[in-house]
Each structure stands twice: as C-alpha cells, then as structure tokens.
Amino acid sequence: MCLLLGASGVGKTLLVKRLQNILPPVVGTDLTDIMAPRKITIRELGGCMGPIWSSYYGNCHSLLFMMDASNPTQLSASCVQLLGLLSAEQLAKASVLILFNKIDLPCYMTMEEIQSLLRLPDIVACAKQNITIAEISARKGTGLAGVLHWLQDQHRTRG
Asked: Which InterPro entries match (predicted)?
C-alpha cells in the first residue's frame, strides 16, 4: 500500500490520473491500483481528512506526500503535516517521496527557496525514513516517470 497525502488542492487526484495514463489502471472504489508491472495500490487521502490519516498508516510501505510549490503559505502548513507524518511510529519504516507539484506555474518556488523556507535538509537528516524529493507538474506530466520509477523500486524491494 502506498499512501498519497497532502493538503487540499495540491494536485493529488491529478497525479493519480496521470500515473494511470502511463500504465493500464485497475480502479477500485476508494483505492487506485497501478500495474507497474506488479500491482501498486495507492490510497489517496485528501487534506480535509488530515485528522484521520493515522488510521491508514498500518499497511503503508511507501508514502507520497504532495505539496504545492506555488503557494508559500500552504507550504509552511504542509511542512507541519509532514513533520507529524515523519514522527509517526507506524510510518518509521515507510519510504517517503516528497513531491513539490505545480512547477509549471510561473509563481512556483525554486527548490533552493523551498529548502530554505522549510529547512528541508534538517528534516531529511533527522527523519527515520528514507526520503526522496522530486519536483513535478501533474498537469503537464513533468517528473511523473520518476515518480513511477520510485514506486516500482519501493514495491519491488518490499516484495
């Protein structure tokens, strides 16, 4: 199981739809299965469901945490959510991919600006999890092949 978490409006649903276009999907009612070549189940939970995210941690092998790179105010709030996720004992062994979406917008923050604002190197250094960071545009498809490759690698090693 891969959890896809992030604040409302960051592009989670679009990411899942775009990943489905890369490979043939099998869609369930509240989960999305992507065949890559093994089945990877992605459970997307919206930002408004943040208070109950922890009830879904149990079977989580990997975590996609999505942030809006064009919204500095929301980035700060999302960082607080991320810190909560990284400190959750049930997610201590999950691999984490932090996705900075909306890099296609003219007002997006550069990775250097984001790292400075969020103190991202400190977060990565202190986390128990293996963390990878990527910039993407779910709308234009930029970086999605890398997301798929990361998912395949994580779920190949989890057997």
From this structure: P-loop_NTPase (IPR027417), Small_GTPase_ARF/SAR (IPR006689)
